[in-house]
Write a structure and sequence with these properties.
The chain is of the alpha/beta class and 362 residues long. It has two domains: 172 residues, Glycogen Phosphorylase B (Rossmann fold); 174 residues, 3-Layer(aba) Sandwich (Rossmann fold), CATH 3.40.50.2000. 43% of the residues lie in helices and 15% in strands. It contains 14 helices and twelve strands. The strands form three sheets. Strands 9-8-7-10-11-12 form a six-stranded parallel β-sheet, sandwiched between helices. It has a four-stranded parallel β-sheet with strand order 3-4-5-6. Strand 10, helix 10 and strand 11 form a beta-alpha-beta unit. Helix 1 crosses helix 14, helix 7 crosses helix 12 and helix 10 packs across helix 13. The longest helix is centred in the N-terminal third of the chain and has 18 residues. It is globular. The chain starts with a helix and ends with a helix.
Length: 362
């Protein structure tokens, strides 16, 4: 659980309860303190009116019985249901964190409806957090919230990065490359994330195919759960470079693949912040990402990586070829790790959230 560090830090000051859908992830609480209570509520990711009403009813009962001083929600669906339940039960401090907008890439009635749900979340909560300054700017511009009613913790991100877990490692580099049959001197690109079209997987593969025609001894690792069965669509298009693209299913140790790689790719269509970018940065990797809100906070153009227009495999290819240069790549990698350590360490973000909680709960 990416919020484990924050949650475990809270037990020194408060009685803490985690409410989540624990189905299919029995290890979710592995790193959580035994002092923390947990309650299962079957909140589904996709819209399902019957399940959503059931989850809302359960949340209302749970919040009414426990009389919490503060409720903090994360993710769009959980945020909406929790906001309604917390407002109904009059929880005094109602806090929600925006981590990206589903409606950003949508049009028409669907976009209007999803924006309305986000406006409802803002209306029902007493405090709003946003995990990047550029996302905050976007939400203010779209009329979802006001700058005075929202806050960004530190320099951004929802939980920061554990710089002791995500760090360069020659041992992991040799181990992963040996497992995947990749030579130690091979220039290795890496994508980590859910395999969804909106994550820019097709653009990453197309750009790599062109790079591999111009550069010898390059490879690409794609790590993540194949939620939309994209691998079956991608593999037939790979042609001669199929041998140089490795697919890896969901892993709980992404830092090992980051330590094994040279350049990180995130050509996503939408991101709230891009925590995976600063995780890769902490491992000493420069990143190439889409020039969209969220990622523009995680990557400093020309210093820790490169930003390219969204959905442009051609410009992504050019950026990848640019970072083939050892000197530029290594300089950006050092800059990226230094920035992750000094600005985005999880200790800093946890300290900020504790200060906020103490201010809200008096």
């Amino acid at each position: 659980m990416f919020l484990a560090h924050q949650i475990n830090s809270l037990v020194d000051f408060y009685d803490v309860t985690i409410i989540a859908n624990f189905d299919g992830d029995i290890d979710m609480l592995d790193n959580i303190s035994s002092k923390i209570d947990s309650i299962h509520v079957p909140i589904k990711r996709d819209i399902n009116l019957l399940f959503d009403l059931k989850a809302l009813f359960l949340l209302i009962i749970i919040l009414h019985r426990n009389r919490f001083s503060l409720v903090h929600s994360v993710s769009p669906k959980a945020g909406l249901l929790t906001s309604i339940a917390a407002w109904i039960t009059r929880v005094p401090c109602r806090l929600h964190t925006f981590t990206g907008q589903v409606w950003m890439t949508k049009k028409g009635l669907g976009r209007w409806f999803l924006k309305l749900l986000d406006k409802t979340i803002v209306m029902l909560n007493t405090t709003i957090l946003v995990d990047s300054f550029s996302q905050q700017d976007f939400l203010v511009k779209e009329g979802i919230l006001t700058r005075g009613f929202s806050k960004v913790l530190g320099s951004g991100s929802i939980s920061g990065v554990d710089v002791n877990q995500f760090k360069p490692s020659n041992t992991d580099k040799k181990c992963i490359r040996r497992q995947l049959n990749i030579q130690n001197n091979c220039l290795l690109f890496l994508f980590v994330g859910r395999l969804k079209k909106e994550k820019g997987v097709f653009e990453a593969v197309e750009a790599f195919k062109q790079v591999s025609k111009q550069q010898k001894n390059v490879a690409l690792i794609i790590v993540g759960k194949d939620e939309e069965m994209l691998r079956s669509q991608l593999v037939p298009t790979l042609g001669p470079c199929e041998a140089f693209i490795k697919f890896v299913d969901f892993t709980k140790t992404p830092e090992k693949y980051m330590a094994a790689s040279d350049i990180f790719l995130m050509p996503s269509y939408r991101e709230g912040f891009g925590s995976v970018i600063i995780e890769a940065a902490s491992c000493g990797l420069p990143s190439i990402g889409s020039n969209i809100y969220g990622l523009s906070d995680a990557i400093v153009e020309g210093e820790t990586g490169l930003l390219v227009p969204v959905k442009s495999s051609k410009l992504l290819e050019e950026a990848m070829l640019k970072l083939v240069n050892n000197k530029l790549r290594n300089t950006m990698g050092r800059n990226a790790r230094n920035r992750a350590i000094h600005i985005f360490s999880q200790d800093k973000i946890t300290s900020e959230i504790l200060k906020l909680y103490k201010r809200l709960i008096k």
